[in-house]
Specification:
single chain; 248 residues; 8 helices; 33% helix; globular; binds adenosine-5'-triphosphate
Length: 248
Amino acid sequence: MATRAARLSAEPAAGQAATVRGLTRSFGDRRVLGGIDLDIARGEFVALLGRSGSGKSTLLRVLAGLDREARGEIGVDAAVAVSFQEPRLVPWKRVLANVALGLRGHDPVGRARAALAEVGLTKHLNAWPLTLSGGEAQRVSLARALVREPALLLLDEPFGALDALTRISMHRLVLDLWERHRPGILLVTHDVDEALLLADRVLVLDEGRIAHESAVPLARPRHRDHHDLVALRAGLLRRLGVDPEETA
Ligand SMILES: Nc1ncnc2c1ncn2[C@@H]1O[C@H](COP(=O)(O)OP(=O)(O)OP(=O)(O)O)[C@@H](O)[C@H]1O
């Protein structure tokens, strides 16, 4: 099959934040992504699960435009923002300056301040990044992504390093921000429950392909012991090669 060069600047299909067809990515002889087809609609929340090394971060980096070596048809809205597991703040700039960094257009500092208020960090505008807790730093990272008003927000394990209680409050915050701004979201996570509590659709990446997809047609906020979620969880865990009984 002929593969076309990536067209990262291509527009996604109408109504979509991202449209990907036949995306492949190899490192040397090793093909990590072997023909990904993926649509993320505007305003849709999609979670991506997969075993360690299955290529989740690679896919996310391609969508973010950070990896230009992939092949296939890749249409991503120009307004794309990313937040990683480690917040990647500039240590010698205060919180407000971190969020305003590189912003163009009208009143960057005012917009940065408003984004920080949305994530509940008004008190920390002048703090240095290294003085923040993990959860606070992750909120700054989210504010920095949001202030760009992305049509597509890419989240790479953003809560993976946080303690359980902070993670729960971050879930609430992300849902709140998503409902207010309605970007398309692709959330990479190892946590099946996180995927089921947040996403409209959960994808499983395996052997370089989207091997499975579960729709989660439940209103939010969701409860992890809801019987539909229990059944979906068991199915997803099996897809990931885990015995659901072991994690009960
Ligand atoms: N720059 C690179 N050079 C060579 N190999 C790479 C590179 N980036 C990723 N890989 C390989 O591609 C595979 C997929 O990596 P990736 O980080 O996308 O997996 P992942 O699903 O995000 O894993 P994890 O859940 O552990 O974060 C891994 O085997 C990794 O070693």
